[in-house]
């Protein structure tokens, strides 16, 4: 039953990620409810979702052609921040992280709810003469996005979309492609660190990875039927419910 629940929620998360993003708000709390220690659950979730992120980059490969070459510089703070975040997670006592998890889930859910308003607020074309100044801030900002991604990870895409808009990007498909591209490095570095540190529950990670791949293909059909708004509502309800229920358990 444990493996079945992990597999089914991973399928659902794969479908959600393919349309709206935010699948970790389903899989991570599920692992905790199944009795996996919170730090191990977070590390396992990061390792399991990485193949899906890589698949998203492949799907968006056309949109990545001809992107601003400065984007590649953002790989450096992404990797550095991810390693710092993963190290912080390893050193976080499980008891503290248990109390911190509901806040992180609530924060990620609120970010997910505010994704469209954030995009509308910052979706502007920055004058060319201002982009160099903004890029220096984006490099600094991306480091902290990497730290958050290595430590927890949910909703990092929303954080990056706002920064990309301030760099002058306005085409949402290309922005999603860049976001997934950078997220791949963040998740990969954190995943490698977690594997080396022995923080991964491999039986759960393997089952989740398989479910996420199935969900990314088959789950997309269901997700597309109910539409992006329907998927977003499901994620928000699940995220808020999980945050409240975990708070009540404290």
Brief summary of the model shown:
The chain is an all-alpha fold and 250 residues long. The chain is built from 10 helices and no strands. It has one domain.
Question: What do you see in this structure?
Answer:
The mean pLDDT is 80. The protein is an all-alpha fold and 250 residues long. The longest helix has 48 residues, at 202-249. The protein has helices at residues 2-19, 24-33, 38-59, 75-91, 94-113, 115-122, 128-151, 156-166, 172-197, 202-249. It is 82% helix and 0% strand.
Mean pLDDT level: 80
Distance between the termini: 25 Å
- Characterize the quaternary organization of these chains: single chain
Overall domain count: 1
Q: What's the β-strand tally?
A: 0
**Rg estimate, integer Å:** 17 Å
Q: In what range is the share of β-strand residues?
A: under 5%
How many helices?
Answer: 10
List the helices and strands in order: HHHHHHHHHH
Rough outline: globular
The major pleated sheet works out as: none
Can you give the helix content as a percent range?
A: over 70%
Q: Enumerate the spans where pLDDT stays under 50 for 5 or more consecutive residues.
A: none
Structural class: mainly alpha
Q: How do the strands and helices of this protein lay out in sequence?
A:
Elements: H1 2-19, H2 24-33, H3 38-59, H4 75-91, H5 94-113, H6 115-122, H7 128-151, H8 156-166, H9 172-197, H10 202-249
Helix pairs in contact: 1-2, 1-10, 2-3, 2-10, 3-9, 3-10, 4-7, 4-9, 5-10, 6-8, 7-8, 7-9, 8-9
């Amino acid at each position: 039953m444990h493996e079945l629940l992990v597999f089914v929620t991973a399928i659902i998360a794969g479908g959600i990620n393919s349309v709206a993003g935010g699948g970790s708000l389903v899989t991570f709390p599920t692992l905790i409810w199944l009795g996996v220690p919170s730090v191990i659950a977070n590390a396992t979730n990061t390792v399991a979702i990485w193949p899906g992120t890589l698949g998203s980059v492949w799907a968006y490969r056309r949109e990545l052609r001809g992107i601003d070459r400065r984007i590649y510089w953002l790989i450096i703070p992404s990797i550095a921040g991810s390693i710092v975040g993963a190290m912080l997670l390893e050193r976080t006592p499980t008891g503290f992280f248990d109390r911190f998890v509901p806040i992180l889930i609530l924060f990620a859910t609120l970010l997910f709810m505010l994704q469209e308003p954030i995009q509308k607020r910052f979706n502007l074309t920055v004058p060319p003469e201002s982009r160099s100044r903004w890029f220096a801030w984006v490099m600094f900002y991306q480091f902290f996005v990497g730290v958050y991604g290595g430590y927890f990870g949910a909703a990092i895409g929303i954080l990056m979309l706002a920064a990309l808009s301030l760099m002058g990007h306005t085409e949402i498909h290309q922005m999603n492609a860049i976001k997934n591209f950078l997220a791949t490095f963040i998740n990969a570095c954190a995943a490698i660190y977690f594997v080396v540190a022995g923080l991964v529950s491999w039986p759960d990670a393997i089952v989740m990875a398989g479910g996420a791949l199935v969900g990314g293909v088959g789950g997309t059909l269901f997700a597309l039927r109910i539409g992006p708004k329907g998927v977003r509502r499901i994620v928000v309800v699940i995220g808020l419910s999980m945050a409240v229920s975990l708070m009540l358990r404290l």
